[in-house]
Amino acid sequence: MAKDVEMKEKVGQRLMIGINGKTIDRETEELIQEIKPGSIILFSRNISSPEQVKRLITHIQNLLSSPPLIAIDQEGGRVIRFTKGLTVFPGNMALGAAGSPDLAFQQGLLSASQLKDIGIDINLAPVVDVITSHHNPGITIRSFGDDPKRVSDLACAFIEGTQKAGLVAVAKHFPGKGAAEVDAHFDLPTVSIPEKTFEKIHLFPFTKAIENGVKGIMSTHIYCPTLDSKVQHPATFSRKIVNDYIRTRLNYNGVIFSDDLEMGAIAKHYNIEETCLKTTMAGHDMLLICSNYKWQKRGFHALVDAYTNSLLSPEELDASVKRIHNLKNFCSKGTTPNQYKTSLKPDILAEQIAQQSITVICNEKRLLPIDSQKVKDLLLLIPDLSALPFLEEGYEPTENHFLIKECHHFFPGKVGFRFFSLNPEHGEIEQTTKPGNKHTLFIVFISNAQVNQGQKLLIKKVRQCYDNIVFVLLDNPFDCEFMNTKDTCITSYGFRKIQLKLLLAVIFGKVEAAGKLPFKVI
Q1: Residue 336 has pLDDT above 70, yes or no
Q2: Active site residues
Q3: Largest CB tally within 10 Å, which of 246, 261, 488, 490?
Q4: 290-305: string of b/e by CB count within 10 Å (b at 16+)?
Q5: Going along 353-494, which residue ranges are E strands?
Q6: Residue 201: pLDDT over 60
């Protein structure tokens, strides 16, 4: 009986689960006490402020004799969980455009310090995918760029900064999904590229991260027939990819995490019991089940049954639990106050990164910077981003929109504005592009035209209607493929407020655009 209890507790240590709400209700308390998970991951649904999260974490830790590690995805840029209370940093591609490992180190250090102060142990970052497909909906600006060495240099600097603050960094998504053209949140991508290409490009940053002491590696749900030829076998289930390559070939002794096992790439094709067994057999230490309480319980009991019936290796169970225990020891040590001094304040650092990343792609007509002595009227065409997740305040489609207010700050003349849907239809495009004053300069903000056909049509219509146009690519610089060689075009690599503020500072000539595209234009 005692052995059964011990085995169940070991199994629980191998699960990272998500919970509901900003406080712990009876159902959640019973779930945590039943599974005794090794880690709990927090999402936006769990967060209202840093102070509230501190209370939540304290409650969680008081439920178990071996408190779970607290994890979060606070990558910066597109993927963040705290939209206020902590500094919102630009994302990886902004760092790639700035090209400074020191900035990456400082962001890792300062972001981790803020998270550590709240009680968080693991940041599931950085993304180290080398982006080789411009049609990659799951990654885009989450990548540092398309050069493996640059990605590695920036990732290793970010990891060093993160872990110097006493926080676990996790390099993701092994073996690299920078070439994937399907988002694994919805279905299973297939990446059919030669094994040598994988090793030279996509695996290179993981190798460097491991050499530099990264504490965690996260796998991904992609099918790689050249790495494991088993038909439609996701990397998540591949012992050849996870155990044989990461653990044996790369001699990695840190913790290997799965990605969320509720994603469509897995959940559309397998039940949670089969998924947990296959993921464990592949060689993962910690399995992520991020939302569904029933699935978390079913996955837990499926693993308990598998160990009870000798379907899984008890030696590998012990080895995984030991690695997780070592991770807990690392997190409990903390850091000595002022051990890693920096003169930079987090908000100032975020501003520096934003400023050094802004990139002018084309300015043949010399419309940038805007000269307020010559230009008297502006018309802003702005996509309505207000329904997107993880937004800061100030994106409502009214005159109080952050962009409009900032334009008034920089520009003394008349500022008009029109909003449009992310995927506008014909009638809305006609209304948005109705004739204006021929002397007006139009600033057209574009948000991910790669996946929004209506914005591609809007771009064409704008060109037909107006002469003086500045196109601003917000959150997908790969939209530059829809630009003509004579279009005036600039990108901010994201729509965070600090990025928009510095974007407008560049547009109006207050600061220089210092960034360079971190990928080749096809």
Answers
A1: no
A2: 185, 259
A3: 261
A4: bebbebbbbbbbbbbe
A5: 359-362, 377-383, 414-420, 441-446, 469-473, 488-491
A6: yes
Task: Quote the tokens at residue 155.
Answer: 């990732």
Q: How far apart are CA 9 and CA 487, in angstroms?
A: 61
Q: What is the token pair recorded at 254?
A: 């840190």
- 264-305 tens-digit pLDDT: 999 999 999 999 999 999 999 999 999 999 999 999 999 999
Q: What is the distance between the alpha carbons of residues 6 and 2, in angstroms, rounded to a whole number?
A: 6
Residue 18, classed as helix, strand or coil, is strand
How many residues make up the chain in this entry? Answer: 522
Residue 279, helix vs strand vs coil: helix
For residue 84, the tally of other CB atoms under 10 A from its CB is 11
Residue 490 to residues 8, 131, 243, 303, Cα–Cα distance (Å): 55, 20, 44, 51
The CA distance from 486 to 471, in Å, is: 11
CA dist 172 and 123 (Å) reads 11
Read off the amino acid at residue 454: G
pLDDT of 106 over the 90 cut: yes
Alpha carbon distance 193, 175 (integer Å): 12
State the pairing for strand pair 15-18/39-42: parallel
Could you tell me the end-to-end alpha-carbon distance of the chain, in angstroms, rounded to an integer? 63
Which two structure tokens, joined as six digits, stand for 246? 């990461």
CA 16 distance to own-chain centroid:
18
Average per-residue pLDDT for the chain: 95
User: How far apart (Å, rounded) are the C-alpha atoms in residues 399 and 418?
Assistant: 10
Residues 126-171: tens digit of each pLDDT = 999 999 999 999 999 999 999 999 999 999 999 999 999 999 999 9
